[in-house]
């Protein structure tokens, strides 16, 4: 909403009527699919690295326990 150059002239209760007239750019279906695929792949990558981090933390715990036994 901040991107619209609209300055109300008075306290207007019908702002939906005013904003419904503005044109909003929307990506094409192809672009939306590409964006969705990008974020899905990013989520998978984050999950993979999170699992690797969890394994390394467990390994660290094991090494610390062996050091102080």
UniProtKB/TrEMBL annotation:
SUPFAM superfamilies on file: DNA methylase specificity domain
Ranges where the Type I restriction modification DNA specificity domain occurs: 18-57
GO molecular function ontology, one term from the record: DNA binding
Superkingdom of origin: Bacteria
Protein name: Type I restriction-modification system specificity subunit S
Organism name: Lactococcus lactis subsp. lactis (Streptococcus lactis)
């Amino acid at each position: 909403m901040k991107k619209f150059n609209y300055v109300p002239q008075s306290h207007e209760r019908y702002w939906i009527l005013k904003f419904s007239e503005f044109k909003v750019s929307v990506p094409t279906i192809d672009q939306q699919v590409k964006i969705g695929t990008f974020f899905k792949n990013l989520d998978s990558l984050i999950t993979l690295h999170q699992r690797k981090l969890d394994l390394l933390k467990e390994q660290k715990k094991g090494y610390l326990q062996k050091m102080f036994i």
